[in-house]
Amino acid sequence: MAVAEIVTIGTELLLGEIQDTNSRYIARFLRDIGVDLYRLSTVGDNVQRITATLQEALMRADIVITTGGLGPTVDDPTRQAVAKTFNVPLEFHEELWEQILERYKQYGQKPTENNKRQAYIPANSIPIPNPVGTAPAFAFELGPKVVISLPGVPREMEYLIEHFVRDYLKRRYGLQETVIKPWVIHTISKGESNIDEIIGDLEELSNPTVGLLAHPGQTDIRVTAKASSLAEAEQMMAPVLQRIREQLGKYIYGENDTTLEEAVGRLIADRHVSVEIIEVGTKGEILSKLKSQVSDLANGEFIDSFVSNETLKTLLKESQVQQNADLALGVRLVSNGDKQDLLLVLRGEEIIKEGERSYGGPPGDGQIWAVNSALDYIRRYLIEN
Q1: Are 379 and 264 in contact (CB under 8 A)?
Q2: Where are the beta strands (DSSP E) in the chain?
Q3: Tens digits of per-residue pLDDT, 95-151?
Q4: What is the pLDDT of residue 363?
């Protein structure tokens, strides 16, 4: 299978002055035609550094796609760098110059003398006319390898990908459009390292691939299969998904687009239980998420002041009785030095369960972690009873 790298060129990218959207587009394009993308690189407008980057990329990849540096000014050095990489001179192409002249004529403008630089491309390369801009592109082949240099303007780059590069690469490497099927299993209350211990061998698979993505209090397991058809991809994924479900069971709250509040709201609705929430330190986020799912079954209040654990329990009991709620959840999140402490109290006719836990991650993620932990407290009780 062909392997590719992307090299984006432009000092403005390194300075953070513009955002690189080209790499994302090209990466998805390569994925769709069955080319494995192994690396992305960004380099400034310097011939020596671009040349070194291209030489290194060609040692690893079959296909190197560059964007940027094809303009008419002296700080547009991609043509020179590619020529230097392959030890060939730049060569003037009259037909490219005619196309540039025609483009400026359509704009009602005259090109300047430096625009003529854009008609020079590395000798022996394949010209790629650019009908939507003034910068011609080109492809340089050497044995099984190729460097394809495209404009940095996203609209022009995308046009040339779809009208030249796609068919060119499919012909050259015998590629076929590939189906990429992703599937995400959402877990909670089980850390990334714990999950890695359980399904670590699955993460070594090459197709389908299995990867973990940690969030505050949650870990997503992403399974991705690459095949010639959707049915084949789903068949490849099935045993992997089944094993994950079997081994992580109660820690899984949903898959793909299912959110935690949707999963909890569905359980509350299915069992038709009313829930009273008293929150301290979480800004009412728990109640807000539940009300977005089961507005008629979730009520409560947010207390924006310090209360002790015992006071919270008293308020929770009083509020539950007043609202005649089947369940009541008390939540108290407080900062304690470099960590945040969470108290969770769940009541039915009496206190069903009570737990304390601490979070030592980034302070800004503490509330997200607490909200997720509280919602899971309800979820775990409902699925176990």
Answers
A1: yes
A2: 3-9, 36-43, 63-67, 90-92, 120-122, 126-128, 137-142, 145-150, 179-188, 209-215, 218-227, 252-255, 275-280, 298-303, 327-336, 339-347, 351-359
A3: 988 888 888 887 788 877 788 888 899 999 999 989 988 889 999 999 999 999 999
A4: 83
Domain boundary among 119, 153, 173: 173
Residue 34: closest CA among 66, 67, 63, 58: 63
User: What's the domain count of the chain?
Assistant: 3
Closest residue by Cα to residue 12 from 54, 87, 68, 77: 68
If asked whether residues 48 and 158 sit together in one domain, one would say yes
Q: Do 149 and 240 belong together in one domain?
A: no
- Here the CATH number for the domain that contains residue 126 is 3.40.980.10
The domain that holds 223 is classified in CATH as: 3.30.70.2860
229 lies in the same domain as 364: no
CA dist 12 and 71 (Å) reads 14
Domain housing 229: 179-255
Sheet holding 126-128, edge to edge: 36-43, 3-9, 63-67, 145-150, 137-142, 126-128
What average pLDDT does this structure show over 212-218? 94
Is 90 exceeded by the pLDDT of residue 254?
A: yes
Give the residue-averaged pLDDT of 294-307: 91
Tens of pLDDT, residues 14-64: 999 999 999 999 999 998 898 999 999 999 999 999 999 999 999 999 999
Domain closes at, from 148, 173, 198: 173
